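Morning!

This is the sequence you dropped in the shared folder:
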Amino acid sequence: MEKETKNIFIDGSLLITEALVRAGADIFVGYPITPSNRFYSYGQKRFPSFYPAPDEISVLQWMTGAAAAGKIPVTATAFPGLALMVESLNMAYAMELPMVIVVTQRLGPSTGSATIGAQGDLGIVNGIISGFPIPTFCPSNFEDCWTLSQKAVETAVKLRTPVIFLTSKEMVMTSKSFDFNRLKEIKPIKREKVEVNGEYKSYQAGEDLIAPFIDFNTNEHQVRINASMHNEIGRIVKNDESLNISKRLAEKINIRSSELAYYNYKKEDGANKLIVSYGISSLAALDAVKEIKANKQKVSLLIIKTMIPLSEDIYNIIDSYKEVIFVEENLNGQLKELIFGKRNTNNISSVNKFGSMIAPSEIVNQFT
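The structure's back. Tokens below.
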């Protein structure tokens, strides 16, 4: 039986907040910054616990302590705040502590413009933990705001890692009528109880490369959490054991690239051209594809939603086309660089925009 329509006036911030809470995130730590202010406002009302921090450095420090105590913390920021969080984010990553950081992109560099959207932070996110992937999801519509938020919490908990939810000013601040009943039910992520015989080793991983997690609230075991190079019990050492633990931080994520992969591939039989986009720009790409097809031209569309790690499926799809056009709202084509590096090839082109959103007509012009 189909659900009745339930249209409500809503924005992406509220959808993401609600989905994160339903998925099990239980504490919001925030410092207000445009264009993530609505997360701060909604977080006060919706999260079981809310802590206003005095600055962004404190935000990540408090989140780290909360995660070590068994909470699933969330914050929302923009590039200036993220820049201040980098050291603490690296610390949480090395400690293998679950948390979700919502990054609302805006025009840079520096403080840029707080009220103009952009897609200029993917390059930063890709290198924010030097040499190591941090799982990064990016919604392309309101449905993604819901489903990918749940996936972000699940990934953070199951892989014991910080996760970035990369969005944009337009996605989270634009309100519109939306059928809430189109969304699937979200159930809280269950944390499996860890059974330990003998000494608990905070960083002793099994074949799945994930170390079982026990928080600081236990009275049964000694729990060590360490951001420096450490052995399986969490003591600072520099040897083969600690090096292998550090390598495992990347391996446990990279080996799950297919499992974590979310994308929308609209294949057109006989098409030689492929448009690749993500986030807010994918809406322009969708409209452009309709217009291109109306002009009796063939084109396929790939919308990427898991930015890091990239699945081999993404490379295989792209490699199957003679011509590829990347559509993204930044100067240098950061998604293109993530996939191909800085090398330019004759069959790869870009539609880039700086300071305003990409219009479908600017994509269509590539086909004339």
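Headline: The mean pLDDT is 94.

More detail when I'm at my desk.
O.
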